[in-house]
Specification:
Oligomer: single chain
Helix content: under 10%
Distance between the termini: 41 Å
Structural class: mainly beta
Strand order of the largest sheet: 1-2-3-6-5-4
Number of helices: 0
Length: 112
């Protein structure tokens, strides 16, 4: 594969990266993300699910998507993706071909 078909890259996503880290009151890290680049992507939902949070007895929706983009941004699992009004945490990044593109698996959690 020498290139990704442009017609399949029909959605805009924003790659977000940590711009600052501070310690919070309990000693953990608080990260601030900023927009790195907006790119064309192919987006495929790969699963939806619901889970119960035991303490609050609320249902939380989980959506897993696969994003395919052209090579260039250098996305890592430390980055995030903003798509369709949701923030996705990246769980996996795979190179397509020899630096042709990247296939990114990411999860969004939305409390209902």
């Amino acid at each position: 594969m020498t290139s990704l078909p442009a017609g399949k890259l029909d959605r805009r996503i924003t790659i977000r990266r940590v711009v600052s880290e501070t310690k919070n009151a309990v000693g953990g890290k608080a990260q601030t993300f900023g927009d790195l680049e907006t790119v064309w992507a192919q987006v495929k939902p790969i699963s939806d699910g619901e889970r119960w949070r035991a303490q609050e007895l609320q249902v939380g929706a989980i959506a897993t998507h696969r994003f395919t983009i052209r090579w260039g941004v250098g996305v890592t699992v430390l980055d995030r993706i903003r798509f369709d009004g949701r923030e996705f945490e990246i769980s996996g990044v795979k190179e397509i071909g020899r630096r042709v593109g990247q296939e990114i698996t990411a999860v969004a959690r939305v409390d209902v």
